[in-house]
Amino acid sequence: MAGADNISLTEGTPSQYFIDAIEDSDVLLIDPPSHEKLVERIPGYAAAFRKGLQRRAAAREERIANTMSKSAEERYLDFLATYPSIVMRVPQWMLASYLGVSPETVSRIRKKLSRKSLL
Q1: Taking a C-beta distance cutoff of 8 angstroms, is the pair 5, 17 a contact?
Q2: Using alpha carbons only, what angle is made at residue 50 by residues 37 and 38, rounded to the nearest 5 degrees?
Q3: What pTM was computed for the model?
Q4: How far is CA 25 from the centre of its chain?
């Protein structure tokens, strides 16, 4: 559910998203007719799917608002607080892309924060 592309699923168009796994992963690929069968046949699936879509929409809205209102350093610190186990496992370019900044900016932020922690 978390990686589903609603537009692609409902309109049958190619997805504008891609998955770039940084670790071994299991991925479920499901076509629209099969997804409809799940919605119809599995009790609770439709509600769980809808809840997942709502959580994802809320996260997307928050991410957009943060991009417009917070500094790159604030967004980095938010990411660090939210995903502490991920921040050092993802490549810097990927983290920068997620934060909407250049890899060089991430490097400067990390350098600045490490200097602060040494003081």
Answers
A1: yes
A2: 10
A3: 0.70
A4: 15
Q: Are residues 38 and 55 in the same domain?
A: yes
Phi and psi torsions of 95, nearest 5°: -60, -45
The pLDDT tens digits of the residues spanning 43-82 come to 899 999 889 889 988 988 998 998 899 999 999 999 999 9
Encode pLDDT of 28-45 as tens digits.
Answer: 888 888 988 999 999 899
Residues 31, 79, single domain; the answer is: no
Q: Which domain holds residue 89?
A: 70-119
Is residue 75 domain-shared with residue 101, that is, in the same domain? yes
Q: Cβ atoms within 10 A of the Cβ of 90, count?
A: 17
Please tell me whether residues 53 and 81 are part of one structural domain: no
Let me know whether 51 and 100 are in one domain.
Answer: no
- Structure token pair of residue 118: 């040494």
Q: Is 100 left (phi over 0), alpha (psi -120 to 50) or beta?
A: left
Look at the chain and report how many structural domains it folds into: 2
Q: Does 75 lie in the same domain as 36?
A: no
How far lies 64's CA from each of 27, 47, 98, in Å?
Answer: 26, 26, 11
